[in-house]
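Supplementary notes for students who missed Thursday's class. We covered one full example, reproduced here. Read the sequence, then the structure, then the short commentary at the end.
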Amino acid sequence: MARSTPLAIIERTQKLRELINDYRYHYHVLDESTMSEAAADSLKHELSQLEERYPELITPDSPTQRVAGQAIDAFQKVAHRVPMISLSDVFNQQEVEAWLKRIDKLLPSANHEFFCDVKMDGLACALIYQDGLLVQAVTRGDSRVGEDVTHNVRTISNVPLRLRKSPGFEQFLSGRTEIRGEIIMTKTEFAALNERQKAAGKAEFANPRNLAAGTIRQLDPRLVAERPLSFRGYDLLRDEPSDVPSYSFAYQALAALGITCNTSAPVLSGLQAVMTYAKVGIKAT
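Structure (token representation):
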């Protein structure tokens, strides 16, 4: 006869998940800490013990389920519903002005209002959530077909396994929500990792961009979990385009859902404001 899980255990398990997820949201998205790391670790340890004792309580979005499974033989190919196109480079203000003139010819009544953000240098990736639950992570690949790296991305601590419920953004917890962004390693984390490599007598890594991209394509998620990677969201896709009316709204929604975004991403009016941001804002970021 199957045993019955005590109600108190079920409620405690749910509470622990809420506390851990809330801590991670405040830490990664709001850049503030609601408790010490030791306290957060103790909560996760308690949750692990309860799930070990009552495995029927384990859920795919539990904070304990970030590192799962053994190494795989190869990555599966996945076609993007919408191509993940790359950005076009410009190298001076004249090229930006020429681009703006082309826009004005196509859309004579266009408002010269721009959403600006800093380009992160890592590996582009799409996170697919179904009814709020992370079900797949796919690299950009050739823009039309990428690789399934779900097991590896699940190990990244600031990637929510379930989107956060937030007033005004409930629609994103229903149906398919795709979040695109960049998997990166910060310069600070990269320097610290190289210090550990040096202390261990191991070869140092060349640069954070290549390390981030190479790490995600490792076949063993346990190795990926050892690297200090993070995700920065920059786009939000829905089957109904009207769900995301603008980039500024997308960033508000991403933050509300528990996704880390760059905070220095303003809406600016006029080309000169954009050029000032490019020259000054990036240095201050």
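Commentary. The longest helix spans residues 7-28. The chain has a mean pLDDT of 92. If anything here is unclear, bring it to office hours.
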